[in-house]
Specification:
With 227 residues, the protein is mainly beta. Helices cover 7% and strands 53% of the residues. The chain is built from two helices and 13 strands; from the N terminus they run H-E-E-E-E-E-E-E-E-E-H-E-E-E-E. Strands 1, 2, 3, 4, 5, 6, 9, 12 and 13 form a nine-stranded antiparallel sheet that branches. It is rod-shaped and about 95 Å long.
């Protein structure tokens, strides 16, 4: 892992005895090459969200004269709709913002340490434009397998961390979120029940079009700074 120099951070070093002091809770975000991705959730490519559109509820259309049968008029009645995602394509890698930074541990030169307690960082899918609850639920499932779109990672007490090489006195480790942006092509279908008179015959599914929504998916990273 590439570390940041003291000069680049424009920090003033305290005396050697102060190295064990806890680093700031929200340090400057690292450059892209200075962190490691430790967790990225897998999505559900087969996600589907079913809903009822109140604008279509109760709507029906009788067929034309040519569609009259011995049982009566052939007609259709709206039943429900559903969304699926045709594709999730990354439009921007590591586009930020890096957020939810949490201090993990400080390790002196020549030492190796483990965390005294576990630390968890969570991030949630965010949207750059308005989208209905159903569409957000679908994209969240598609990107993260979670309907809430929240991804978490915990750094445990079994993880080991090493100190820097001289001339640095100690290395501080942090956990945080980074983001990738996706273009999500959402496909809508409307389902109608087809009747012959009062007899139900079959469901008919109609293509209602595709819309692309942009969303940022979080992933957890670890980075360090040497002092």
């Amino acid at each position: 892992m590439v570390t940041l120099s003291a000069l680049a951070l424009t920090l003033v070093l305290s005396p050697v005895s102060s190295f064990a002091q806890k680093a700031p809770a929200t340090p400057a975000a690292p450059a892209a090459q200075n962190y490691t991705v430790v967790h990225e959730a897998k999505g559900n490519p087969n996600a589907m969200v079913t809903f009822v559109d109140p604008k279509l509820t109760g709507s029906a259309r009788p067929a034309g004269p040519e569609e009259v049968s011995p049982l009566g008029i052939i007609s259709e009645v709206y039943d429900h709709s559903y969304y699926v995602v045709d594709s999730n394509n990354i439009t921007s890698y590591n586009c930020g913002p890096i957020d939810s930074q949490k201090f993990l541990i400080s390790v002196a030169t020549g030492q190796t340490k483990t965390l005294s307690s576990s630390t968890t960082v969570s991030g949630t899918v965010t949207y750059s434009s308005s989208a209905s609850v159903e569409i957000r639920n679908l994209i969240n499932l598609s990107l993260t397998s979670s309907i809430s779109g929240t991804i978490s990672y915990t750094w445990g007490t079994s993880d080991q961390y090493t100190g820097p090489n001289s001339p640095y006195l100690h290395r501080d480790y942090y956990g945080a979120n980074q983001y990738d942006e996706y273009g999500n092509k959402v496909h809508r279908y409307d389902v109608y029940r087809i009747y012959n008179g009062s007899i139900f015959m079959y469901n008919e599914t109609r293509d209602a079009g595709v819309t692309t929504y942009y969303a940022k998916k979080p992933k957890q990273i670890t980075y360090s700074m040497d002092f």
